[in-house]
User: What shape does this take?
Amino acid sequence: MSLPPITVDTLIFVAFFLLNIIVGFRYRGKNQSFREYAIGDKKFSTAVLTATIVATWMSGSALFINLENTYKQGLYYVIPDIIGTPMCLLITGYIVGPRMGKFLNNLSVPESLGKLYGKPVQAIAGISIVLRSTGYVAMQLQVIAKTLTILFNYEGPAVVTIAAIIITLYTLSGGVKAVTFTDVLQFFTFGTLLPILALTIWNKPPKFYTSNTYVPKQPTHVF
Assistant: This one.
């Protein structure tokens, strides 16, 4: 199994992951408690929280799913998505959020449910979240594999495995603080590159070629 050739795309990809490692280890807490590891020290600014929420919301799987369904279904998919997503955020912010104040010192949703409904419910919630998160991470890695195949014309487990190890290392070492600031890096990276890509495509539209092939006319059946 050979690795992809060294190209500009490969160097950009490697540089992006190296920056994530540097930022992740730079902002990891030193001698932090488990509480600080899990939920941080609550000293994040509004700008940082906004950037990390946007970067987290625009996940790789959501991007692929939205693009695919928009292409296949058109406005039948776009209109409910445009209406449903803002409604979901508004309901969370104005209805659910204000009622979560008494749970701010809890480390997780299962802990909150355990205080309300007991240990069995807490255990069920914890197992469910672990299973859901495992599947979600697997989905993200699958998106990385598809992206690498498109960018580098390379299909293999090596680069995906390296990416998974990098993400796991800075997450385990730094906790939520490292994840938050790497999300900020990703927010500015994609917030800069996507408009540049859109402008490039707009200014240099692809050439369209006509085809000489045609569909033969079906014979008319006489009944």
About this structure: The mean pLDDT is 76. DSSP finds eight helices and no strands in the chain. Residues 207 and 213 are 18 Å apart (CA to CA). Residues 11-203 form one domain.
